[in-house]
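Next up, a chain.

===
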Amino acid sequence: MNFTIKKANLENLDAAAELFNLYRVFYRQPDDYEKCKNFIKERLDNDQSNIFLIYVDNKAVGFVQLYKLYHYVKLAKQWLLSDLFVHPDYRGKGFSVALIERAKQWCDETEACGLMLETEKTNDIGNKLYPRCGFEYDGLHNYYYWWK
């Protein structure tokens, strides 16, 4: 299946927001397209993330979203692969791998030292996909979070 990957901008806002909303629903969050659209618009307006959309027949069917971080050991920029999603109707066709490869290319383009990500332990698909794409599991660190 032929596809193209494009860096998102405000012209792609509706497509990015629709996929982002579906992604959040996948992670058991309420369906809220407008809130997702505002969130993505703010990220794009303020240059706070980089989103790449994958298109099949001029329809956006998946995305990857990257946030800039800095690695304290490598003393270099790195990218957090925060969000990766392919519409269920288009899964199993290699689009997730293509989006990850585009994220790796973005590292080269921006002189970043690499990518990092986290996923739920229950995300069986992701936990098989990421090692296949060259990611190494970091069993040395626990990830914690604090919510206000």
User: Anything to note?
Assistant: The two ends are 44 Å apart (CA to CA).
